[in-house]
Structures are given as structure tokens and as C-alpha cells.
Amino acid sequence: MSKKVKYHETFAKFLKLAIMSLLLLPFIIQVLKLKEAYPLHGVQFSNAEKYADSLKGSENYFNGSWQQLKSYQIQENLLIRNVSIKIRNQIDFSLFNKVNAQNLYYYGNQFFRFYCVDYHEGILFMGEDEIKEKVQKIKAITYALGDSIPIITAIAPTKSYLYSDLLPEYNTKETEYSNYRYIKKTLLENNMHCIDFNQWFMDINTTSIAPLMGTGGVHWSRYGATIAMDSLINYLNEHTNNDFKKPEWRFVQEEEVPNVNDNDAVYVSNLKCPPFDNELRNIAYYETDSSRKKVKALIVADSFFDVVSYFGLRNNIFTEDSKFDYYYGTQPGIGENQHLEEGIFEEYLTSVDCIIILSAVVNLENYSWGFIDEAYKRLVLEEV
Amino acid sequence: MVFSSVIFLIYFLPITLAVYHLIPKSLKNIWILIASIAFYSWGAPTFVFVLLMSTIIDFYAVQKMDKSAGPIRKRWLIFSISMNLGLLMYFKYSNFFIENVNYGLEAAGISTISWSEVILPIGISFYTFQTLTYIIDVYRKDNRPQQRLHNYLMYIFLFPQIIAGPIITYKKIVHQINNRTEKPSLFLAGFVRFSVGLGKKVLIANTIGYYAHELLFPDQGIILTCAAAWLGILAYTLQIYFDFSGYSDMAIGIGYMFGFKFPENFDRPYTSYSISQFWRKWHITLGEFMKNYLYIPLGGNRGSALKIYRNLIIVFLLSGFWHGAHWTFIIWGAYHGLWLILDRLFLEQWLNKVKWIAIPFTFLVVVNGWALFFTEDINEACQQLAAMWSFKGSTIPILPHQNMYQFYILLAGLFCFLGLFPALRQLSDKFVSERSTIIGQLFTVSTGVFLFLESLVYVISSDFNPFIYFKF
């Protein structure tokens, strides 16, 4: 055997050993638990483990159902699974702008939620009759509560409108028969309260001193939420002859940790190198004006109110006994979300300064999430 | 168990390989047999007993056959073949026959046969063909029967190929059962080949497959336009090639890692000049099986032209039927059989004269064939073909991340038509010879490592991973 061939064989042996080690590495990591699972955001694992254990038994083994669940269980419990997901997501994102998270999309430099045209083109339109009926119910509730307790529908801004120029052409088609257009139109025609933050944000987006929505978020930024609440208080003061306290706030230096809420879409995208928004401004709230009254409100809202709720703004302008009913209890809430329990419903509603229904455009297909129907039943029908 | 699964890549393959390379030579075949049975029985262990029993009976029946002569020898042959074909008929085709008989009975107003559906054991078609090659080869005295039961069981259950081939005839592997060389360079070539196959399946076929599915099976109420139908079937054409050839590459690669050299199954089939050539380049081992164990015994190219055409049609009808117990597969087989007859009549000669049109024309024929193959529903196949040839509608539904699908389709097209895979294969095969430079070795292995790791990341982080050819 020539010296060269021998040399090559030795080198090949070394490479073979390296490849064998590479193949065995994930197994060794798993068995020796050498690495802690990387944290992921917004991931719900199936309960494969629980099910696999419940399926123990010869029948399930012989028909293969136990093995199927065991495979899922093994996959979900792999210590390198989370880091693999992050690398996969990063490759897809870097090469194709693809976001591997439910209902999240990336166009231009913006993350979008609900890319689909459904609400834009009115595919999920509730229907004229249903909207008219809802508005008539609001009218009747307002009458029952008295004009001093306004029911305000606040429509939160949506990136699909703010940055529609970044979306594919077919995704920006609009019709007046969308929930957004038609609810707003019907409310205003019936002299009901409606604040369209979506339109307002579109008007001021280019001149705003700070981002209204983070490039990596689907909700309004803390700044956006603050000026929206400021505007809401202005509106209340104007329409109820009150002088409620307005938000008191100032910009502060960026924290070292990126603003989680303003980058929510980036976080759930679970990228290895997430593109955080450097333009975002952080805000601190303070209270100097103790002479003015805070608003006592029932807030029926989606996650847009979370931004108000979790960073000090809620306590800055709303009383402590104000209630935030997340999706009116139709979605599992987190934190201090409070659902109105039976027995205090009517009493509470008559004690507030206002009722706020805050909804993103996309959530208008479930306008008020049943609150209007419930209030109508309790305050109007049962009283009659 | 499938190759592109976590359980295979993280547990089964590394452990099986590590033990295999550590134990003495005398135990290696037994270890492969144990691993193969574990591999097969992971999916549905019930069937492993049926197949084990049948294989053991075959082993002894063939030994009896070998020792006998004359009509008794033939009887053993018939017994063994009947048992294997009987199993295939029962598991794979009984549902189909009963379903069709019931259609007929229902139409005639007669009460139908009550029948509980038989579950298809994975890989039974490949298992049966492989077993048949052993029985027939020994009957023809091409080979002596295997003397050790565990070696025969290992050959039949050999995990790299039991599920979806390549179909390895006994005579091609008999010498490797006891004597195979396990050179490090062969192991490395196997790893690279396996990684290429895994990449073909996980990165390309899965992605294009999703796109094909979205186009070919539109939501209810959405009309399939001509453009969408063509794009969809083109995507499926690439998907099925990358899926199946990827599986074959993985099987061949694993074989190398254990010292086996399996036959090739694909050779740039979409660059064929005629349908006859296509069948020499697509699923080569099936083509060879059909030729050696069916076409030639039927008479092959001997006899009148009509007899040859009859033989061709029989072979392709049965080949279609082997793929699945549905009318669409039978029609697909007949469709290819007809093109082969046309080749014999005039087409191949004509295409040889106009070579510039031969590849696109053959490709078009193949693509139209896949329109019959992609679905088990004959109505869907007709709708697909009608949409393709309606020349109505140029709109294509734009899916999110269209750019990704376009990229992978282009990439797949490049690999299919520019012969990049043979280049990669040649590169990895250089390891078998010691002439390759160290840098060359490093580059090839690095390519394999990169493909393996990227594919592994995708396998671990995804849930959807079926192989198209599993159902056959």
C-alpha cells in the first residue's frame, strides 16, 4: 500500500470518527442532559407526554398508536428542539422573510398579524343587520344607564392600514362592508360614541415623534397607547363635562432589555437573532396632579389594553376599582383581568364613569365579545 | 419509523451504527436483523409477526425446493410465490376488490358484502417483490439458497430498504451478506449520500409538496385555473422525484455506512429522451424487477409485435396496480404502457431525430402522467387534466412566502435538469477511491455535515414529514 493511500485512509478514519461523534452528539446531550432547553415564546406543546403514558397497554402498542404519541413526546422533549426551532426560524426569516408563528407575517421591515384579506375585504363581515342590531342595543343600554355613562367604542390601530403600502397589492383591497367601516359608520349615524384610533394613527403616523407601533409588534407601542389614552380622556372630558386626570408621562432612556410588549411579534417569532426596533421609546409614568379625578371605567378589550394595563398607564388614569374584562371573558385572560360576576353586573355598570369597548379591527368580527348582548339583556330586557 | 424522523435520526441510526462498528464481525448481521425488526415494528408491530412468519416459511420452502427436482420443485415454487402474492393480495388489494364488487352489487340491487377494512402494512409491496426475487433466483438456479435463517431474515428485513426500496434482488446482495468491506471512505461516502437524500426530502420535497398540495387541492368553491393546475402538477412532479429519490439516496447511504452497496434507483429521469428511457432512469430497481421477473417470462421482445405490445401493457398495468389499489394507478400504468408501445411503433425513432424536442416532450408526457397519479380519486384526476388542458385562467393563487416556493422550485429544477445530483454523487463516490485529495474529502464531508445539520434542524422543528412512496 502506497504511503499516500495509507495517509488517506488514516484521514478517512479520523473523519469517520468525527462523523460518528456528530451523529451521537444529540443522543448524548439528551441522555446526559447536557443542555437546558432553550426558552421559546408563545409555544404551546401538545400533551403528547400525558397521552403517550395514558396509552400504555399492549393493544395500543400493537396498533402503533402508542409509538406515534411516543414519537411526538420524544420530539417535544428533545433538549435541542428549541434551539433547532430558533435556527430553523432564523434561516426561513433571513432567506425568505418567513415567520414561523401562527398568523404572523413580515413585509418590508414590519411584522404583521393576520396577513389574510379576510377582514379587509369583508369576508368576515358580520352583516349589516347584526351591526345595526348591536348599535340599537348600545342605544338602548345608554338610555337605560343614562347619558352620563357613555359607551365608547374605540377601534385600535392596525398595521395592515398603517403600512398597507408594504403589503401585497391584493391584500389592500377594501370595501365599505367591512366590520371596521360599517360599525364605525353605524355608530356615528346613531350618535353613539366611536373613537377611530386606526384613522387617527394613519393621519399622524409620519409626523409622530416616536413610533406609534413597533416594527416588531402587532399592538400599539407604549407611546402609541399613551397618546391614545390621552386622547380618550380628552374625548371623555369633552363629552361628559368632567375634568378627568390625563396621563402624566415622560420619555426615558431605553432599558437594556428590549421592550417586550412593543416587540411581541418578534418574540413569538422565536428567532436566533431577532430584529428589535431601535426607534422605540420607553416611557415612565408619574403622578403630580392629585387634584383631578381618575376615570372609573369598565373596559371590555382585547390585548391592546394589555399595553395600557401592564406598564403603569392604567393606574395613572383609571381608578383602582376600574375593571378590565379581557375579551369579555371569552378568551382566557392573564394577570388582573376581571370578569364581571353575576350579582354585581348592573350595580357596577351604573357606578362607572364610562364603558370602553376597545377592539382591534380584526376583532370587530366579534364586536364587544358578547358584552352588548349581555348588558342589553340585563339592563333593558330584564328591567322591562 | 421513517428516516426523516427524530426517533430515527437521534436515537435509532446513531445507536445502531455505533453498536455495529463496535461488535465483532460474527454478530454484525444479527445486530442488523435485530435493528431492522425494531425499525419495522415501531410503526405497527402486529404486521411484523405476519412478515416474520411468512419469511421463515419461505426460507424453509425454498430450501425444500432447492433439494427437489421436477414437478415437486415447481410445486414448492408455486407454494412460495402463492403465499407471498396471497399476502400482498389480501393486505393491499382486498379492500379494492370488495369495494368494486360492492359497487357492482349495489348497481344490480343486490345486497353488498359486509367487510371491515384491511390495514395495509407499510412496505409490503417492496417486501413481496424482494422475496420473490429470492425464490425465483433460487428456482432458476441463479443462486444457492441462503443457509442461515438469520442471514436470510436480515436480507429481507434490512431496514434501509424494507419500507420503500430500492428493490434488491438476492443475486445482487448475496455476496455482501457474509463478505462486505467496511472502509472508512465508504462510510463517509454513505454519510454524504444520506445527507443529500435527507436534504432532498426535508428541505426541497417537503416545501414543494406543501405548495403542490395548496395548488392541487384548492379550497371548496375555488376553481382550478389552467395556470394553477400546471404549476401545481409541476410542483408535484418535482416533489415526487425529490421525495422518492431522496429516500433512495438515504437508503443507499445507510447501506454504505453498514458496508452494503445497494443498486441505484434514479438516474436523472426527467432528462430522458423518451418514455422508454424514462423507465430505465426512474425507479430503476422496479423496472429491472418487472423486466426480469415479469416481462421476460411473458415472452419479452420475442414473438410478434402484437405479443410484445400485449406484454408491455400487462407489465405496466401491473406496475400501476403495484403502486396502489386504485383505478388512478391502473390508468397511470396503462398510460405509460401506451406511450411505450408508441415508442416501439415510431415515437422513439422520431424523437431521436429531433433531440431538441425529445426531453421537453418526454417531460410533458411524464407530467401528464402524474396528474393521474397524484390522487386516488379518478374524478379529481379528470378535473386536474381538464383544467390543465382547458387553457382557461391564468391566475395563480398567491400563497404567503411565494418567494420561498419559487426558490425551491427553481432549485429543484436546476438539480433535475442540470445533472447536479450526479455531480454530488460522483463527488461523494470519490471517497470510495483513495485518489481524492484531502481538501476534496474535507469539502465533500463538510457539504454532507451542513446538509445533515440543516435537515436535522428542520426535522426536529417540524411535525409534517410523510414519504409519498410509503403508501405503496
Summarize the structure.
The complex is a heterodimer of chains A (384) and B (472). Chain A is an alpha/beta fold. Helix content of chain A is 42%, strand content 11%.
Helix and strand topology:
The complex is a heterodimer of chains A (384) and B (472).
Chain A: H1 3-32, H2 48-54, H3 58-62, H4 65-76, H5 81-96, E1 104-107, E2 110-113, H6 128-145, E3 151-156, H7 159-162, H8 179-189, E4 193-196, H9 197-204, H10 222-240, E5 249-252, H11 264-268, E6 282-285, E7 297-301, H12 304-310, H13 313-317, E8 323-326, H14 345-349, E9 354-360, H15 371-381
Parallel strand pairs in A: 3-4, 3-9, 7-8, 7-9
Antiparallel strand pairs in A: 1-2, 5-6
Helix pairs in contact in A: 2-4, 6-8, 6-15, 10-12
Chain B: H1 6-22, H2 25-41, H3 45-67, H4 70-107, H5 124-139, H6 149-157, H7 170-178, H8 184-216, H9 226-257, H10 275-281, H11 284-298, H12 305-323, H13 327-353, H14 355-373, H15 378-388, H16 402-417, H17 420-429, H18 438-460
Helix pairs in contact in B: 1-2, 2-6, 3-4, 3-5, 3-6, 4-5, 8-9, 8-16, 8-17, 8-18, 9-14, 9-15, 11-12, 12-13, 13-14, 14-15
What can you tell me about this protein's structure?
With 384 residues, chain A is of the alpha/beta class. Chain A folds into 3 domains: 1-34; 37-77; 110-381, no CATH class. Helix content of chain A is 42%, strand content 11%. Chain A has 15 helices and 9 strands. In chain A, the strands form 3 sheets. Chain A has a 5-stranded parallel β-sheet, sandwiched between helices. In chain A, helix 2 (48-54) runs antiparallel to helix 4 (65-76) and helix 10 crosses helix 12 (304-310). The longest helix of chain A has 30 residues, at 3-32. The model of chain A has no long low-confidence stretch (mean pLDDT 84). Chain B has 472 residues and is an all-alpha fold. Chain B has 2 domains: 6-179, no CATH class; 185-471, no CATH class. Helices cover 72% and strands 0% of the residues of chain B. Chain B has helices at 6-22, 25-41, 45-67, 70-107, 124-139, 149-157, 170-178, 184-216, 226-257, 275-281, 284-298, 305-323, 327-353, 355-373, 378-388, 402-417, 420-429, 438-460. In chain B, helix 3 (45-67) runs antiparallel to helix 4 and helix 8 packs antiparallel against helix 17 (420-429).
